[in-house]
UniProtKB/TrEMBL annotation:
Subcellular localization: Cytoplasm
One GO BP annotation of this record: glycerol catabolic process
Active site (UniProt): H95, E167
A GO term, aspect molecular function: triose-phosphate isomerase activity
Gene3D superfamilies (alphabetical): Aldolase class I
Keyword Protein biosynthesis annotated: no
Designated name of the protein: Triosephosphate isomerase
Keywords linked to the UniProt accession: Cytoplasm, Gluconeogenesis, Glycolysis, Isomerase
Phosphoprotein as UniProt keyword: no
Gene Ontology annotations for the cellular component aspect, listed alphabetically: cytosol
Length: 252
């Protein structure tokens, strides 16, 4: 059975107060969930310690980015090992904002995946197409290329540390969301690509991201190849985020 995961990516938002109140609220309201979902909070790195302190042991914690190096003269970067040292279990890699705003190439993404897995973290590889690419009929080929490049260095015994998050770029922070059917079609295609790479595709969790909200989460999570979500803005409001976590169907 694949793991069900709902992860909240705070992006460049947050404060010590939010790390205390929001995380405590989410922790208390999700601790008794019986649908088997793993809840992950991914704050800016500077607040990881605060989130860990308030997670109560029932929430997992991730980091939004790591460098492609283990240590050295890279001012402003953090190593995957540092994230582990602070209590993280997950790391995002290849988010579209990192690719677009910071020029991260497929090669850099692959290097980061290697560092993340090597440090003992779970790598959440983010992939997705632009509106122009989708309208040109290239959505599946673009996403497949990102998956193949980003996970090219994953060894046979490392696949259990891989999660793939499909986030259509045109739906991130825009209020637009792929239909449940469109999202399912891409997730099914992703699973086929992973299978062709020799991965245990049916054991790898695939998440959907891109304006997931309380009112559309249930329909998305009901699809057979969607194992949860990577949530942006809605993860900053405890009530909304918890509602999304509750939308994950039990026993699937």
């Amino acid at each position: 059975m694949r793991r069900k995961i709902v992860a909240g990516n705070w992006k460049m938002n947050g404060s010590k107060a939010l790390a205390q109140t929001l995380v405590s609220d989410v922790q208390s309201q999700t601790a008794s969930l019986d649908n088997g979902v793993e809840v992950v909070i991914i704050p800016p790195a500077i607040y990881v310690g605060d989130v860990v302190a308030n997670a109560g042991g029932s929430l997992s914690v991730g980091v939004q980015n790591v460098g492609q190096w283990s240590s050295g003269a890279y001012t402003g970067e953090i190593a995957a090992e540092m994230a582990v040292d602070q209590g993280c279990q997950y790391a995002l890699v290849g988010h579209s904002e990192r690719r677009q705003l910071f020029g991260e190439s497929d090669d850099v993404v692959a290097q980061k995946v290697g560092r993340v897995i090597g440090a003992g973290l779970h790598a959440v590889l983010c992939v997705g197409e632009t509106l122009e690419e989708r309208e040109a009929g290239r959505a599946e080929s673009v996403v497949a290329s990102q998956v193949k490049a980003g996970l090219a260095g994953v060894a046979k015994d490392q696949w259990q540390r891989v999660i793939v998050a499909y986030e259509p770029v045109w739906a991130i922070g825009t209020g637009k969301t792929a239909t449940a059917q469109d999202a399912q079609a891409m997730h099914a295609s992703l699973r086929q690509v992973l299978s062709e790479m020799g991965a245990p595709a049916n054991e790898i969790s695939l998440l959907y991201g891109g304006s997931v909200k309380a009112d559309n989460a249930a329909a998305l999570f009901a699809e057979p190849d969607i194992d949860g979500g990577l949530i942006g803005g809605a993860s900053l409001v405890a009530e909304d985020f918890v509602s999304i976590c509750r939308s994950v169907p039990a026993g699937t």
